[in-house]
Amino acid sequence: MARIAGVNIPTNKRVLIALQYIHGIGPRKAQDLIEKVGIAPERRVNELSDSEVLQIREAIDQDYVVEGDLRREVAMNIKRLMDLGCYRGLRHRRGLPVRGQRTHTNARTRKGPAKAIAGKKK
């Protein structure tokens, strides 16, 4: 089992797909990585040699911010907005949509399950 950036990536999947299990690496970055390291996209993780896994690990450490560092950076950005008291920070603080979506209806992902209001029936 290959362990890259603190994540056990699945062994029976193609390298392109398996790399996307790492937080901060999507389809485009995974494609760039396998081109840079020189691995064929159709190869599977269990077919990789230890040196190829090491090359991937070093390329990720060198070029990308992933996993814990990325999560910490995003959390610090949100905390900074909240400390500033700007509009986006207030929306984060209240647990409401941040990017201008409507909240009269919908927005259930951010607001949580609907709560009944007493005496509202008509």
Structural description of this entry:
The radius of gyration is 21 Å and the shape is elongated. The model has no long low-confidence stretch (mean pLDDT about 90). Helix 2 crosses helix 3. Strand 1 and strand 2 form a beta hairpin. The protein has two domains: about 1-65, Orthogonal Bundle (Helicase, Ruva Protein, domain 3), CATH 1.10.8.50; about 70-110, Ribosomal protein S13/S18, C-terminal domain (30s ribosomal protein s13, domain 2, Irregular). A two-stranded antiparallel ribbon has the order 1-2. The N and C termini lie far apart (about 60 Å). It is built from six helices and two strands. With about 120 residues, it is mainly alpha-helical.
- Average of the residue pLDDT scores: 91
CATH topology of the largest domain: Helicase, Ruva Protein, domain 3
Strand content: under 5%
How far is the N terminus from the C terminus?
60 Å
Elements, N to C (H/E): EEHHHHHH
Q: At the first level of CATH, what is the class of the largest domain? A: Mainly Alpha
What coarse outline follows from CA principal-axis ratios?
A: elongated
Tally the structural domains: 2
Kindly name the structural category.
mainly alpha
Number of strands: 2
- Low-confidence region ranges: none
CATH architecture tag of the largest domain: Orthogonal Bundle
